[in-house]
Each structure stands twice: as C-alpha cells, then as structure tokens.
Design goal:
The complex is a heterodimer of chains A (about 140) and B (about 325). By secondary structure, chain A is α/β, with parallel strands linked by helices. Chain A has one domain (about 10-140): 3-Layer(aba) Sandwich (Rossmann fold). Chain A contains 5 helices and 5 strands; from the N terminus they run E-H-E-H-E-H-E-H-E-H. Chain A has a 5-stranded parallel beta sheet with strand order 2-1-3-4-5, sandwiched between helices. The longest helix of chain A has 20 residues, at about 120-140. The radius of gyration of chain A is 14 Å and the shape is globular. Chain B is α/β, with parallel strands linked by helices and about 325 residues long. Chain B is about 50% helix and about 15% strand. Chain B contains 14 helices and 8 strands. Chain B has helices at about 5-15, 15-30, 35-40, 45-50, 60-75, 125-140, 155-160, 175-180, 200-210, 215-220, 235-255, 255-285, 295-305, 315; strands at about 50-55, 80-85, 95, 110-120, 145-150, 165-170, 190-195, 225. Chain B has a 7-stranded parallel beta sheet with strand order 4-2-5-1-6-7-8, sandwiched between helices. In chain B, helix 8 (about 175-180) links the parallel strand 6 and strand 7. In chain B, helix 1 (about 5-15) crosses helix 2 (about 15-30), helix 2 (about 15-30) runs antiparallel to helix 6 and helix 6 (about 125-140) runs parallel beside helix 7. Chain B is globular, with a radius of gyration of 21 Å. Chains A and B meet through helix 1, strand 2 and helix 2 of A and helix 2, strand 3 and strand 4 of B.
Chain lengths: ~140, ~325
C-alpha cells in the first residue's frame, strides 16, 4: 500500500426531515479516526444544499444518512443535483434503515454503496476509502 | 502553464464553484497546477479584498457570528468568501469540520463561497495554504473574506495574522479578563466582540474589555468593543460599520499595506520551512548520534546549503 498523499475529504450529510444523527455522527467520527477530513453539514438539509456544499468543498465522496424512509427519493436527488453542478464524478454512498429490496434500486440510481444498521464499521470505512481512491484516480487521469 | 491551471483560472474568472474548490485543493495538496495558478491570479482583486479574521474560544459564537456577518454583507450586495479552520487530530490526522453547520442557510447562495480547512498538524504549512485560499477567493470575485479559527495554539495564531483586521469573539462566562490576557490573544485583536451580550455577565465583561482597549480606541476614535447577539443578528450592523471605518483608516494610513506585506513575509517563511522539511528529514536519517540538536541542526544546514547550489525543483519534492 502506498502512503496516502493528502487526507481524503468527505462530506457527511443528512438530507430530508429526520433529525436522528447518531449514525451520521458515528460514521463521521469513525472516518476522522481513520484519517479522513469530514465535512459535516448537520441535519435537515436539502439535496441541493448538500450537493452545492460538496462542490464548494471539493470533496472526494459524499456520504448520506437517512432514517426516515425517504431514501428512495432523497439519495438519487443528491446524485442528480451533483450531476447538474458538474460533480457527476463524485461518488455518493448511503446508509440508514433501508430495506433489502431498495438497495438494488438505489445502486441502479447511481449510488456507489448502501449500508444498513448491521454493516460493520470496517466495511463502511473500506468502502469510503475505495470510493475516495477511485475519485482521486479519476482526477489524475483527466 | 498546465492545461489544468488554465481551466481553473478561466473557471475562477467565471466564479465557477467547482473551479474555486479545485484550485484551493491544488494549493492545499501542493498539486502541479498550484504554482502556475497562483502566479496568474488577478493582483488588483487581491489588493482590494478586505480580509477579516474571527477568533475566540470554542463556544463563544464564532460560526454564528460569521453566519450573521455573511447575511449582512449579502444585504450590502457583497460577494463573500469564508475560510473555516478546524484542528486535525494529532493521532489519526483526520478532522471533523463542522463550522459549515451554522452557515448552511447560505449554501445555495452562489455569492457565498465557503471552504473548510483542517490544520493538518503542520507547523506552518496551513498558514501558507490559507493565504493562497484567500487570494484564490479574491481572484474569484469575493470582496470580503472571513477567516474563522479557534483562538488557541500557535498555528491558529499564525493564520489569524493573514487577516487585515482581527475580531476576537468572547462571551460571558468564559473566565475573567485575566484569562483573556493570559492567552496573549488580546494584543492581536483589533476588535473585541462581546457576543451573547443579552446574558448575565456581559456588562462586566464589556467594562473589563473597554478598559483594556481604551488606548486602541483613543488612537482612532472608532469603537473597538462591540456587543452582539449573533444568533439574533443583533449588533451586527454596528460591528460592520466600525470594522469598515477601521478598514478605511488602515487603508488611508498605509497600515493595510504594511500588514499585508508582513503577512506575506510570514507566509514566505512558512513555505521555506515547508519546502525544506522533507530534505532535512531525509538528511537526518541515519545520522542521529548523541549530538546536541542545536549543533546538529547547524551542521545539517551547512552541509545541505554547501552541497546543493541550485536545487532543480525543490517544490516538486515536497509533494512526496
């Protein structure tokens, strides 16, 4: 493994109306402890706000959390907002209370990976690392 | 000029948020495009921009005050840039950058450009990156730029020196004036903002600060201790009016130029140390011994300066 040149920058955001941010904060801390720079945007943001922030902050990856059941609408909306703002290359990962049958739908809608309450933290961090690497490689090849 | 820096420069002129974000990353990460890009920035815009530094203890209301200042500056049709600095973990090197939470109301305003930066544990390098970020934002049309950082620690103090005008935010209940003096922060502050001034103890805090700042106040006749309730946008107009008066004073007296050139000197020194670091770390390997570090340092400097007359591209080597 090569030494990471500069820390990966990720955004952790909660689109929609639910105010339960324990999961999002847990992931933010876990990523920080693995050397990521985590921009946390807090609860109750719109997809457009999250996408605009991700572009401004030039993040490698966007991680979304939703526990309200609105993930099928909200997660792809962030993917689309990113696309509209010239950030189609930024991978979006999602987590929350998400039924098995929705996972394939979300992956089909452009989400990079989906995590559920049972996913071990290590798996989540590995997915973030891989998505960040993928994004940096994409940048380097441009 | 590399194609990347050309594209980024064109993007900055068009105020493209993606280009601004990428340009700052290029500098922060010592990317290839950085040098070309920085050399070609619009110097007139950089000279014109007003850079405010906001510092103070955690919880005094820096982010809330910043957000409130953004609202007022936007009402005045000013394009605003914000650089929010948070510390990196010394153990993992990671960071949680949470200052944006209080600024999210401005997330969709194209004329509010926010960048969160982590200190990345560098002794000086952050100061250099943040300075470049200021100039990139200025070149992308920002007229006022706010640098926000916790007022503890040397790297934060270095950063705040990048500002033309420094605001120190305090709130009642954070210890007495002796604490503030002990921190040595009051000397660098041009303004003292007593935030949460509707709370118990604000009056006494103000009186203490007025006394400490009386000589600064007499010097210009501009109020330097200002009360705000940032969460309700109270006192912000008064604060900005005084800050603008002081900015005029600095400009007319030539002090702005003086402060800028001092800051640029500090940044240059920062870069020198940053660029030399890898070379010296390399030279130190396998040559430890029991020598006193001061003597060893002198010897290393002599060896390196003597053998390296015109290093080919020292800048590149720092990206290792």
């Amino acid at each position: 493994m090569t030494v990471q040149k500069t820390p990966y920058r990720v955004l952790i955001g909660k689109p929609g109306l639910d105010g339960h941010d324990r999961g999002a904060k847990f992931i933010a801390r876990a990523l920080r402890d693995e050397g990521f720079e985590v921009i946390y945007t807090g609860i109750r943001r719109t997809a457009a706000e999250i996408a605009a922030t991700a572009i401004q902050e030039d993040v490698d990856v966007v991680g979304l959390s939703s526990l309200s059941g609105a993930h099928l609408r909200l997660f792809p909306e962030v993917v689309n907002e990113l696309k509209e703002r010239g950030g189609a290359d930024i991978p979006v990962l999602g987590g929350g209370v998400i039924p098995e049958e929705d996972i394939q739908l979300l992956l089909g809608d452009g989400l990079n990976a989906i995590f559920t309450p049972g996913t071990p933290a290590n798996t989540i961090i590995r997915s973030f690392t891989e998505a960040c690497q993928q994004h940096r490689n994409h940048d380097a090849n441009k | 000029m590399t194609p990347t820096s050309k594209t980024l420069l064109a993007g900055l002129k068009k105020h493209d948020p993606r280009a601004i974000g990428r340009a700052i990353s290029a500098v922060e990460n010592n990317g290839d495009a950085a040098a070309d890009l920085l050399a070609a920035l619009d110097q007139d815009l950089i000279n014109k921009v007003l850079v405010l530094g906001i510092t103070g203890p955690p919880g005094a209301g820096k982010s809330t005050l910043t957000s409130s200042l953004i609202t007022t500056l936007r009402e005045q049709q000013k394009r605003v840039g914000i650089i929010a600095v948070d510390p990196s973990s010394p153990i993992s090197g990671g960071a949680i950058l949470g200052d944006r939470i209080r600024m999210m109301d401005h997330a969709l305003d194209p004329d509010v450009v926010v960048r969160s930066m982590a200190t990345r544990g560098r002794l000086g390098g952050l100061c250099a990156s943040a300075g470049a970020a200021v100039r990139i934002m200025a070149a992308a049309g920002c007229e006022s730029i706010i640098i926000e950082t916790v007022g503890v620690g040397q790297s934060e103090m270095d950063i705040i020196r990048l500002a033309d005008i420094t605001l120190m935010v305090l709130a009642p209940g954070f210890g007495d004036d002796i604490q503030a003096m002990k921190a040595g922060l009051l000397e660098v502050a041009d303004f003292l903002v007593v935030n949460k001034s509707d709370q118990h103890g604000a009056e006494a805090l103000c009186m203490d600060m007025e006394q400490i700042f009386s000589s600064k106040q007499e010097e210009t006749g501009i109020a330097r201790v200002i009360q705000t309730v940032a969460s309700e946008d109270r006192g912000i107009d008064e604060l900005l009016a005084s800050v603008n008066n002081f900015a005029d004073y600095l400009r007319i007296s030539g002090m702005k130029k003086e402060r800028r050139s001092k800051a640029l000197d500090a940044e240059t020194l920062d870069w020198i140390i940053e660029m030399l670091r890898p070379r010296f770390l390399q030279a130190m390997k396998g040559n430890s011994g029991n020598k006193d570090p001061r003597i060893r340092a002198k010897e290393l400097i002599n060896t390196i300066l003597a053998t390296q007359n015109s290093p080919p591209n020292i800048f590149k080597e720092t990206t290792l």
